[in-house]
TrEMBL record, chain A:
It comes from the Bacteria. It comes from Agrococcus versicolor. Residues 1-21 are annotated as: Disordered. This is Sugar ABC transporter permease. PROSITE patterns: ABC_TM1. It is a multi-pass membrane protein.
UniProtKB/TrEMBL annotation, chain B:
This is Carbohydrate ABC transporter permease. It is a multi-pass membrane protein. Pfam families: BPD_transp_1. Keywords: Cell membrane, Membrane, Transmembrane, Transmembrane helix, Transport. Gene3D superfamilies: MetI-like. It comes from Agrococcus versicolor. Belongs to the binding-protein-dependent transport system permease family. The keyword Cell membrane applies. Its main location: membrane. Residues 94-286 form the ABC transmembrane type-1 domain. It is found in: Cell membrane. PROSITE patterns: ABC_TM1.
């Protein structure tokens, strides 16, 4: 900084020279992109385009299999594929439940962490723990917690005199709720920290002024905190929803999709790598993208309208 | 400071309406107490599972399966850790994970640094495209990318190799690394570079002796994120690696859950705990920055 201040009267080069320099900059900018562009184009853009196209073929996993273009045949097949739509419904329940519960819980926690309570430094560190753990390990850990005989959950329930023999991950009634709780746990840190950062960006003076005017805690929450947080809320819930819908490792290790927890990603994975139907699995991927995009479109448009209204 | 904060202003109301201010103070005290209760509940919910895993890792099989379980192990013995490394083959898996994560990190940093610099400093059409791609790549489900990648890597002889996994991880980590590094470069005033150029330093010289030292912390943070991302990743490894000797740590542990892990609960816990160490250390280091500067900047951006 000091170097800059020391030379405020730096002579500006003549106009033509500057234009020449910008031309060279543009060229070197492209050159700087090359090392990152090659892998992205070759192993990300190209496969993605190919993946979308594969959804319109009968591609199989076998080495000698011939792939032919089949148009919308996969999608016609998917229409009657009840198991897929069942899995799709489970995916929607899972993604909505986890995102909403996560958001409400994380907002409460963020407000508490921002409320000048004693010990909030430690609480903040502990709140980050799930972030520091690989999804596979989170799932293994919760299998310990939820174990029907040795688990801490049933242990705790037993100590309280409640029924302590529930097989959380092994019954159709409880598997999905249990898996949703683990999903909420795993995603809490990102949501909490993002909301906390948003809270800290709200001007304290607004709260003080409202308090002087006699606004209650509740009124201030609805009229100052929520509007102030709105952009952050929209961003984090959108991201969470996408992440949750695309989630794989957690549920793969927890239940492998058994007992009504077959998320769409697990279903598509099985279709592709267990049964070898690459084309059909890609078609499922395309359907999933379209549905996610439709939800996001509706949600983001409603939010944009609410902001202008 | 926030909605729930009590203002010290409560005391100002003076001696009049003593009753009202007292009842208000009681209400405030109850509210505070409720806040503490809620905070403790959250801390238990988020912290207890890890505590349970840690204690399980030190327990003997008898303790784990005892009908009258205790939270703390009778003796803190390391048998499970030794057993996990030797018997479950976690040592080899950890080595594979380490090699893959280190190679990925190195390549990601080398490749993304120039591009991040260009993204931050030059107004080109690529900038909009790159930003669009970074966002778009987050939306698409992995299944759409992994099948073509699987088909592409097969003729290249990269299926079922750690090299192939590195290729996938590099591409998978690049968007986020680019995004992060771009932010760090943009935070360095470009006047510094101009001043350097004015003093007659070459472009390369400016980059090496002015930008690089200032970019150090950002570069380290980006590298760590890339490392942890690859270290934790599971889905791509599951699809691409079939050879048992080449499996990564999360993959090995996920398999262990279904097989011997059923009986060797303590070893499973110990192995899981070992797999967390790199990320736990990393988050302990950066947690202060994570809660303050890093993300508040990211949110405002």
């Amino acid at each position: 900084m000091t170097t800059v201040v020391a030379r405020p009267e730096a002579p500006t080069p003549p106009a033509p020279a500057r234009r020449g320099r910008r031309g060279r900059q543009d060229w070197s900018a492209y050159l700087l992109f090359v090392p990152a562009m090659i892998p992205i184009l070759a192993f990300s853009v190209y496969p993605l385009v190919q993946g979308i196209l594969l959804g319109f073929t009968d591609s199989q996993s076998g080495l000698g299999a011939v792939t032919t273009f089949t148009g919308v045949e996969n999608y016609v097949r998917l229409l009657d594929y009840d198991l897929f739509w069942q899995s799709f419904g489970i995916g929607l329940i899972w993604a909505f439940a986890v995102t909403i519960i996560q958001f409400v819980a994380a907002l409460c926690l963020a407000l508490l962490l921002n409320a000048n309570l004693w010990g909030q430094g430690i609480a903040r560190t502990i709140a980050l723990i799930p972030w520091a753990m690989p999804p596979v390990i989170i799932a293994i850990m919760w299998r310990f917690m939820l174990h029907p005989t040795y688990g801490a959950i049933n242990g705790g329930l037993g100590a309280l005199g409640l029924p302590d023999d529930t097989n959380w991950l092994g019954t159709a009634q409880w598997a999905l709720p249990a898996v949703i709780v683990v999903g909420v746990w795993a995603g809490m840190p990102q949501t909490t920290i993002t909301l906390l950062a948003g809270l800290q960006g709200i001007d304290d003076q607004l709260h003080e002024a409202a308090q002087i005017d006699g606004a209650s805690v509740w009124q201030r929450f609805w009229n100052i905190t929520i509007p102030g947080l709105r952009p952050v809320i929209v961003a984090i819930t959108t991201l969470d929803f996408i992440n949750n819908f695309n989630s794989f490792a957690l549920v793969y290790v927890l239940t492998a999709g058994a007992y009504g927890t077959m998320l769409p990603m697990l279903f598509a994975y099985n279709e592709a790598f267990r049964y070898g139907n690459f084309g059909l699995a890609s078609a499922m991927g395309n359907v999933i993208v379209i549905v996610i995009a439709a939800f996001l479109f509706v949600y983001l448009r409603a939010q944009a309208k609410a902001r202008t209204a | 400071m926030s909605v729930i904060t009590d203002a010290p202003r409560a005391q100002d109301s003076g001696g009049q309406d003593d009753d009202r201010s007292r009842s208000r103070r009681t209400r405030r005290r109850v509210w505070r107490a409720l806040q503490y209760v809620a905070l403790v509940l959250f801390v238990c919910f988020l912290g207890f599972p890890l505590l349970f895993l840690v204690t399980a890792a030190f327990k003997t099989q008898q303790e784990l399966q005892s009908p009258d379980p205790q939270l703390l192990p009778a003796q803190w013995n390391l048998d499970n850790f030794i057993g996990a490394i030797e018997r479950a083959g976690l040592g080899q898996a950890a080595l594979n994970s380490l090699v893959v994560a280190l190679a990925t990190t190195l390549i990601v940093v080398v490749v993304s640094l120039p591009a991040a610099y260009a993204l931050a400093r030059f107004q080109t059409r690529l900038r909009g495209l790159a930003t669009g791609w970074i966002l778009l790549s987050q939306v698409f489900p992995f299944i759409l990318i992994i099948i073509p990648l699987f088909l592409m890597l097969r003729p290249l002889g990269l299926n079922n190799t750690l090299g192939g996994l590195v290729v996938v991880y590099v591409v998978w980590s690049l968007p986020f690394a680019l995004w992060m590094l771009r932010g760090y470069v943009a935070a360095i005033p470009s006047e510094l570079e101009e001043a350097g150029a004015m003093d007659g330093a070459s472009r390369l010289r400016v980059l090496v002796s002015i930008i690089m030292p200032l970019l150090g912390p950002g570069l380290v943070a980006t590298a760590l994120f890339a490392f942890i991302g690859s270290w934790n990743e599971f889905f791509f490894a599951l699809v691409l690696i079939k050879d048992e000797a080449l499996q990564t740590l999360p993959q090995r542990l996920a398999l262990f859950v279904g097989s011997e892990g059923q009986v060797a609960l303590g070893q499973l816990a110990a192995g899981s705990l070992l797999a967390c160490i790199p990320s736990l250390v990393f988050f302990a280091i950066i947690q202060r920055r994570l809660t303050s500067g890093l993300l508040s900047g990211a949110v405002k951006g």
